[in-house]
């Protein structure tokens, strides 16, 4: 049977106040005492009374998320991986999630209700759009927040963790250009999302430096599923002047693209080159494809953990984090990229 706060304090020979302060991250509790308390919590299965904890500290120890719900919005393994990182960090500090479902046209009201409820100490935003109105909404509310990604246009003075999507796809395109490719296709995420816009921008910037222009017939936007990757690649291969290389915004899209390439009887890395963005999904490793994929790599789970650490650190007044973080993506060259055919 789990113990209560009084029994835990008696077991440790400490006052209930000291145990409570150790659990709630008060800086005046020394590291040795905090460690003893946490070890006892693990050993006894003690769970704090959240209502009492909130009364004592004024903190709910919860992070809020507004989840858009509507017909046509599919589940996304990428977001699941991000949440896994967020959850791993939250568990370390005994924080919870509060997920509020919302219709896309009711997000502003949902954020306002969530902030006013007192049920969360902070919120995070994801799936950033161009000129995303949610940033201005949250800046007007008295609740801390961190953004995963960046908007395009609008306010710039807000906390975020993002990867340099423009640079990632610029570097990937430059590699293909150096290998002689000029007909380069893009299988991208949804066209309204900021990361998709920036990845296209990176491709266009590299092409422009080589005196080339992006052929709009070689760009497909879609949800990032293997079926969409398959259909997009089929369309490209059916063109009279098919691309000799393709960029995919996810290894999930690449899974479908590879299927279409194989069905067409082409050899990846010889007849057509492929580069995918690798979010480091545990069930879909690029090195395990039939032809190991060249990738731009940045871990979604690490991003989730970082955002949780920043939010929790701000709530508990611990840690010193930069306001804005732009992470580089690593370009990893494998066998799926080769010289353009006939070169």
From TrEMBL:
Matching SMART domains: HTH_LACI (SM00354)
Keywords: DNA-binding, Transcription, Transcription regulation
Top-level taxon of origin: Bacteria
Residue ranges of every copy of the HTH lacI-type domain listed in the record: 3-57
Matching Gene3D superfamilies: 3.40.50.2300, lambda repressor-like DNA-binding domains (1.10.260.40)
UniProt xrefs under PANTHER family: HTH-TYPE TRANSCRIPTIONAL REGULATOR GALS, LACI-RELATED TRANSCRIPTIONAL REPRESSOR
Protein known as: LacI family transcriptional regulator
UniProt organism field: Sinorhizobium kostiense
